[in-house]
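Workshop exercise sheet. Pairs work together: one partner reads the sequence aloud, the other fills in the structure field after running the prediction. Swap roles for the next sheet.
Pair: D.N. / O.F.
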Amino acid sequence: MSNTIEIIATVLFVLAIIHTFSVPVFAKLAHKGGSHSGIWHLMSEVEAVFGVWATVLIVFMALAQGVDSAVHYMDSRNFTEPLFVFVIMVIAGSRPIIELVKSIVKILAKVVPFHTGVSSFFITLSLVPLAGSFITEPAAMTLAALMLKESFFKRSKNLKYKYLVVGVLFVNISIGGVLTSYAAPPVLMVAQTFGWDSSFMAEHFGWRAVIAILINSAIATIICKQEVMMTTDFHNMEKQNNASQQTQKREPVPFTFMLIHALFLLGVVVFAHHTPIFLGILMLFIGFCGAYARHQNPLMIKEGLMVGFFLAGLIILGGLQKWWLQDLLAGLSPMALFWGTTALTAVTDNAALTYLGSLVDGTTELWRYMLVAGAVTGGGLTVIANAPNPAGFAILRKSFPSEAISPRNLILAALGPTLISACLFLLPV
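Structure field:
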């Protein structure tokens, strides 16, 4: 690829980042109405940002170097991750899976000697992200975001608390997948190259992540305790009133359907690196849902496709950033690398950072640890920092003014949990 194309790709990458931080402005313009409100609405969709700018890049490549060159570049990209995130969002966001996880959370919450709503809030913020080490981070993000949307975001009017919870959720998801070697995208990209298996991850990363997640979740729960109790109690009163008025109630999801959906989810996780297989599983899943529509909510097809489009655009634009990123990473000491990747993750995908770092020759085990630790630590700072973040953004953004989560407020909210995580990962290796 010529230097000119690489420079253009970097310019477009920067414009996409600026566009991402400008989303609230476009959202306000869209809500004012007018003849151009449709285009402003498109510009306010974070999930569309990188896909749109990636399209500009491909069109430029086709005009500058010919269609064959543009097609060759597209063929050289690996789009397994965007497709996987799309599939996992659709299945994990289905009603039987949500009801299954809610049932588990309720059982655990009753064991804890606190207000049930507060206990459920803490468990959703902590144990669900940790489950991402086994069901993958995108699945954990989908489940946690959907549950928090229903139990907290739709009912709370406190915007500061909402941003706090989003920040903690994004950070916890980013570090929650490091107990195994296959669940977190930045770990998956380097595990084979570095020779790291799940026992290595649990020994060097896992226990640190568990402590950081528990601390982050405990702080958020203490701060939001009164708000959570108020929203939970108000919701219980509404349910009682609805029951007394004999409003229409859907039949419960049979456990058999929960189990079948869990098997679909497990199949996708097991074959996460085999696109034809997990896409085939998705087709069977959609057919099964259609056959038993009474036990389903509308599937998250649109949301999943938009998130996949976002990640695909990030892969197209990010694939031409090697010319400056790799040299930058190679020249850093381990401690500088940790803070450098933590900061760089805010403006580029952490999996891309670790992949580029894995290409650097002659690195030490400490350098490799700092590369991955910094990448997962900074994975909650922005919507583009970690692959599951766009999924959480797509689910939760309608609970915010103008249906947009402010990038500036997200960084501020995630800064505290990020620093706590950093302190844990910087403990002597």
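Discussion prompt: The mean pLDDT is 90. What would you look at next?
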